[in-house]
Amino acid sequence: MKRIYFIRHAKSSWDNLGLTDHQRPLAQRGIKAAKTMASAIWERNCPLDRLKTVYSSSALRAQQTIALISEQLLSLGMIEQPISVNIDDRLYSFDSYQVLTWLREQDKFFAKQEGVSSAHIEERVIVGHNPAFELSIEYLTGQALEKLPTCAYVQLETDLASWCELQANTCRLTNLITPKMC
After folding, report:
1. What was the pLDDT predicted at 108?
2. 3-state DSSP call for residue 8?
3. Degrees (nearest 5) of the Cα angle 47, 52, 58?
4. Would you say 64 and 34 are in contact if contact means Cβ atoms under 8 Å apart?
5. pLDDT at 143
6. Nearest in space to 65 (alpha carbons), one of 45, 37, 95, 86
7. Over 70: is that where the pLDDT of 113 sits?
8. At 155, which helix (H) or strand (E)?
9. Contact between 124 and 104 (Cβ < 8 Å)
10. N or C: which end of the chain has fewer CB within 10 A?
């Protein structure tokens, strides 16, 4: 069984209009949400401690989100070392096609990079953006989401043998939590 864990970045700040979209940091509300969501994500068995790496968009707000989740889990004693994060520019996308392509490439790209057979690549945690995440989830599950707010967490499962087989309606939505639910 393969699992995909989507973490949408927390609320970003628009205070400095001189920054590019890529450079925008988290707002105070986003910092609070990331810390709150850390234990909620952990309690839903997201494998943040088991995986070699979590993959994040290169946008500052996405990197800060996973860093805050890691710091919070460390401070609560839920993990023993910081979460390893691989920054991937391909996840700095608002296009669901690009996110779906990234997921479908897991067999060839990450088996080579991590030195394991594709049969062992069962789980991926990715941190990124809307509308790409929301549309990808809807496509993979066939379920319309009312809204995927900032710092939301979604877990999908599929019985497919290979990541490249991901298509419409091939996944089940097994967890969805938002900061307001915590």
Report:
1. 77
2. strand
3. 95
4. yes
5. 97
6. 37
7. no
8. strand 153-158
9. no
10. N
User: Could you tell me the pTM of the whole model?
Assistant: 0.94
Query: Tokens at residue 11, please?
Result: 């609320």
With beta carbons less than 8 A apart as the criterion, state whether 74 and 42 touch: no
pLDDT tens figures, 63-101: 999 999 999 999 999 999 999 999 999 999 999 999 999
In DSSP terms, which residues pair with 153 in a beta bridge? 7, 177
Tokens of 99: 């996110």
Which tokens sit at 47? 């494998």
Q: At what angle do helices 96-104 and 132-141 cross, to 10 degrees?
A: 60
Q: Report the distance separating Cα 169 and Cα 159, nearest Å.
A: 12
Question: Looking at the predicted structure, is the pLDDT value of residue 55 above 90?
Answer: yes
State the amino acid at position 38 in one-letter form: A
Written as one letter, the residue type at 128 is G
- The DSSP H or E segment spanning 92 is none
33 contacts 179 by C-beta, under 8 angstroms: yes
